[in-house]
């Protein structure tokens, strides 16, 4: 059975098309001819793009992945993100003991086996080999220096499941970074106290993105440009940014966009989705929702409370980025950063029929999964 999406402004990921149709068969976009008995979905001039891709999301409406490293949490993260137009996610497990990391890996593996065509891409392991000086809300007790033994365990169990891992590269030796890169896991530089030179070395070794630009990293000083400066000075390095208005000033985001151009993209880094959870405690990690932000009892930001749709709206309305660009920053660019832009993040033949529909005022984002 064919489905035809008609009467829409189509953001393909590379261009905007007016008055064209999208033809779908068996859950995939196709180039084949329109059939007479096809089901028609008339979008009445709304906009459509590939669904948003969120590579940094910590919890759903109910559960927090690091606290409940289970299939139920992955389902919660996926479903609650989907409601707001995010069709692809990397549930993010933060700094915790090795047995919890392995539990998260196994839960993700089981989920992927049962739901091979869902939008869950694998997992993001943020930590535990971070720099204590830039731990943010991560628990100091579980932050540790990388040992070959633990890295080997993580790679052995996480290969093919962990799609992204955040590390403070300055605490690794070259062989350890090489070991991670060779395993096929995308490595991101974050929660890092690296100097400009250390960060440049990490990027030169093959690390091709950073974690939540500006947050939990050395800032750009004129004599020591830090991780931020190294990221700005490395055109091929991707930089995800949290546009909730709290994690960085919108002017700082505008400057980053001018420098990083098509290598700046959006993440939610949401602690929970939809502001359903107002307060939260996991061991020493606590968070309270107030005025659209989660803060811990020390007053530090403890993850965001926004969706990818909110970030797209803020990119356009607060930062001044064009709608076309903002949509790319939530779709094809995160896909490119992970090297999976041939599979998701575009409207083109062979890509999954997982979309987000929205109006030009960006007030309403709805998923469409066929
Ligand atoms: Zn973080």
Automatic annotation (TrEMBL):
Molecular function as annotated in GO: N-acetylglucosamine-6-phosphate deacetylase activity
Keywords: Carbohydrate metabolism, Hydrolase, Metal-binding
Keyword Hydrolase: yes
Enzyme Commission no: 3.5.1.25
Domain named Amidohydrolase-related: residues: 48-361
Keyword Thylakoid: no
Enzyme class, UniProt record, top EC level: hydrolase
UniProt-listed InterPro entries: Amidohydro-rel, GlcNAc_6-P_deAcase, Metal-dep_hydrolase_composite, Metal_Hydrolase
NCBIfam families xref list: nagA (TIGR00221)
Family statement drawn from the similarity comment of this UniProt entry: Belongs to the metallo-dependent hydrolases superfamily. NagA family.
The name this protein goes by in its record: N-acetylglucosamine-6-phosphate deacetylase
Origin species: Emticicia aquatica
Organism lineage string: Bacteria, Pseudomonadati, Bacteroidota, Cytophagia, Cytophagales
């Amino acid at each position: 059975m064919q489905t035809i999406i008609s009467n829409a402004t189509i953001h393909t990921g590379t261009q905007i098309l007016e008055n064209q149709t999208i033809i779908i068969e068996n859950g995939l976009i196709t180039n084949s001819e329109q059939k007479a008995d096809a089901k028609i979905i008339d979008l009445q001039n709304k906009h459509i793009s590939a669904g948003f891709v969120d590579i940094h999301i910590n919890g759903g409406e109910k559960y927090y992945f690091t606290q409940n490293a289970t299939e139920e949490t992955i389902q919660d993260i996926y479903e609650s993100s989907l409601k707001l137009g995010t069709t692809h996610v990397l549930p993010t497990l933060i700094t915790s003991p090795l047995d919890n990391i392995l539990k998260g890996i196994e839960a993700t593996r089981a989920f992927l086996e049962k739901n091979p065509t869902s939008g869950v891409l694998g997992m993001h392991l943020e930590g535990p080999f971070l720099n204590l000086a830039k731990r943010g809300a991560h628990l100091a007790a579980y932050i540790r220096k990388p040992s070959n033994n633990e890295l080997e365990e993580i790679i052995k169990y996480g290969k093919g499941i962990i799609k992204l891992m955040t590390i403070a590269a300055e605490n690794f030796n070259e062989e350890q970074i090489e070991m991670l890169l060779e395993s096929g896991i995308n490595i991101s530089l974050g929660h890092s106290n690296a100097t400009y030179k250390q960060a440049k070395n990490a990027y030169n070794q093959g690390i091709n993105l950073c974690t939540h630009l500006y947050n939990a990293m050395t800032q750009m000083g004129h004599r020591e440009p830090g991780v931020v400066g190294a990221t700005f000075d490395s055109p091929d390095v991707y930089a995800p940014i949290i546009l909730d208005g709290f994690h960085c000033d919108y002017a700082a985001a505008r400057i980053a966009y001018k420098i990083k151009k098509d290598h700046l993209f959006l993440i939610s880094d949401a602690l929970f989705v939809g502001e359903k959870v107002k307060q939260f405690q996991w061991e020493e990690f606590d968070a309270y929702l107030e005025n659209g932000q989660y803060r811990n009892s020390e007053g530090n930001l403890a993850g965001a409370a926004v969706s990818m749709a909110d970030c797209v709206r803020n990119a356009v309305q607060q930062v001044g980025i064009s709608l076309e660009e903002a949509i790319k920053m939530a779709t094809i660019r995160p896909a490119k950063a992970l090297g999976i832009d041939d599979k998701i993040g575009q409207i083109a033949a062979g890509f999954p029929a997982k979309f987000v529909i929205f109006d030009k005022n960006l007030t309403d984002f709805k998923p469409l999964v066929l």
